[in-house]
Amino acid sequence: MEAISIDVVSDVVCPWCYLGRQRLEKAIDNVKDELAVSVTFRPYQLNPDMPAEGVDHKKHLAEKLGGADAVNRAHDMLTGLGQQDGIAFDFPAVKISPNTLDAHRLLRWAMIEGSEVQSRVALALFKAYFEEGRNVGDRAVLLDIAEAGGMDRAVVSALFSAGADVDSVKGEIGMARDMGVSGVPCFIIDNKFAVMGAQSVDVLTNAFREI
Questions:
Q1: How far is CA 203 from CA 48, 57, 171, 199, in A?
Q2: CB–CB of 44/176 below 8 Å?
Q3: How many Å separate Cα 50 from the centre of its chain?
Q4: pLDDT score at 185
Q5: Antiparallel, parallel or unpaired: β 55-56 and 35-43
Q6: Mean pLDDT of 120-135
């Protein structure tokens, strides 16, 4: 059986990245009898200058998208798309736009424990933020997610306190930008080919087969 690797460059507060993650899972399922696919989540920050405590979500989005009406239109569209991909977006529940550096540090440590652990933690981060309105910039929330994903809570807490991998994650984000990644999700296949955006399941499936 042929094997391919997929690096998913994404941010945990990007709704299109959540959609992309769900569609990727369906595409992988489509080729499971043809290809062995390994997936690794890589960091990206849409708002790297966000303060550590985050900012008011509704105000931030209104400033970014051009007003409350534009935000509502975007949320309505995403809610509809989410229903098609098994996502119960609850945008009114989201109160904080967080800094996601710590979330990406957690994903890095989850990756060390194995792709299955990282996949569980990545899904839990998306679900916590977009479906439950939890602040994924809050270390207490991140520790709960880590523990539920099978990671050692005390070890993760110690890594956070020690400032572990801050520079490594920032460096990896910088590397993605240097490679030309300007928006997420971006699926990098076999370190050679890039598929940008939350493409349809068919587009991803066909890309895997062609490559």
A1: 30, 32, 30, 6
A2: yes
A3: 17
A4: 98
A5: unpaired
A6: 98
